[in-house]
Amino acid sequence: MTQTVRAARLAIGIAASRALGRHRPLLVNIEATHRCNLQCTFCDKAHPDAPVMPGDRALALLDDLARAGTLSVCFDGGEALTHPDLGRMVRRAKDRGLRVAISTNGTLIPSRLDDLRGVDVLKVSLDGRREVHDRGRGPGRYDQALEGVRAARSRGIPVALRMVLAAHNVGDWPHVLETAEGLGATALFQPAIGSLMDARDRQGDGSADPAAYAAALTGIRAARAAGRAVGNESACLDHLSAWPTPNPVPFCAGGRVEVAIGPEGGLYPCGRVGRNAPAPNVFDLGVAEAMRRVERPTDCADCWCTLTLGVCFLYRPEVRLATDRLSRWWNGVGS
């Protein structure tokens, strides 16, 4: 499926969801594992004994998603590259015409390059300068992450660096942006909240000082206006500037055109909503029936993930963002 066809189908699917209530999992985040090769000090999601989605089930899930109309999948974690069957999953997704993104800490990219053939974008976490990054992720992890990015770029795989603005690194955003530009990548920014699993926990011990965060967002917005490699859309940066003050999103795409699937098959409206309640299971019910039963938030005021926000603004629709996002898809980049 070409990017142009995929973008057109996304626009049609959003219109059908908005106007007719015909909700389909067009954009899917698959958390195939919550295990990780790192032990980051700020993470409340990864666990060494966490469940892992069996490879054969993951392949069947991708077939089911394709039948349900899915256009794009992002393999997430934990650390997605620790999954032994990731290569099979990527190949199956591409065989079904899906766009494929992967979220990763970057350290395992060189050892999994053959499994990443055909990936449309790698989203690699970078927290700042070497000493800042390694403080939270472990000695040597900065160099390993950048080695991974260079390896991916050498194979022509697009990369976006993702920075979570927290207390220990909020002033390092210029370094991340400059590093992205030097590597031929883009940079994405968003605030550190209290929990990776619950968007309502909007401020934690590791969150940035609000004034320092506001100053960083001002600088990031100016950099984007100047044409630098900031991957956030302007509408998303406008919204994120309100953190930590609740900022309602009355046009939520969660459970309508975007969903997340956990390692055991639970279907959630997005990666950070619905985790505190039983979820319909795609392995027990199938994707279509689970999609009919999934939670559809109506009062979310704590959406701080820039990529999820981008989908919500696209769902609105927000004309500036729609033009930007669809053009990025046509050019083979973006989230």
Write up this protein.
There is one protein chain. The protein has 335 residues and is an alpha/beta fold. The chain has a single domain, classed as TIM Barrel (Alpha-Beta Barrel). Helices cover 39% and strands 12% of the residues. The protein is built from twelve helices and eight strands. The protein has helices spanning 3-20, 55-68, 86-95, 130-137, 141-154, 173-182, 210-225, 234-240, 282-285, 287-293, 306-315, 319-330, and strands spanning 27-31, 72-76, 99-104, 121-125, 159-165, 186-191, 258-261, 267-268. Helix 2 (55-68) runs parallel beside helix 3, helix 7 (210-225) packs antiparallel against helix 8 (234-240) and helix 8 (234-240) crosses helix 11 (306-315). The protein is globular and about 45 Å long. The protein starts with a helix and ends in a 5-residue tail after the last helix. The mean pLDDT is 91.
What's the arrangement of secondary structure elements?
Blueprint (H helix, E strand, L loop, with lengths): L2 H18 L6 E5 L23 H14 L3 E5 L9 H10 L3 E6 L16 E5 L4 H8 L3 H14 L4 E7 L7 H10 L3 E6 L18 H16 L8 H7 L17 E4 L5 E2 L13 H4 L1 H7 L12 H10 L3 H12 L5
Parallel strand pairs: 1-2, 1-7, 2-3, 3-4, 4-5, 5-6
Antiparallel strand pairs: 7-8
Helix pairs in contact: 2-3, 7-8, 8-11
What class do helices, strands and sheet pairing give?
Answer: alpha/beta
By DSSP, the count of extended strands is: 8
Report the mean per-residue pLDDT as an integer.
91
State the oligomer: single chain
Uncertain spans? none
Q: So what's the overall shape?
A: globular
> Can you list the strand order of the major beta sheet?
6-5-4-3-2-1-7-8
User: Could you tell me how far the N terminus lies from the C terminus, measured between alpha carbons in angstroms?
Assistant: 17 Å
Radius of gyration: 18 Å
CATH class: Alpha Beta
Please indicate the count of domains.
1
Strand content of the residues, in percent?
5-15%
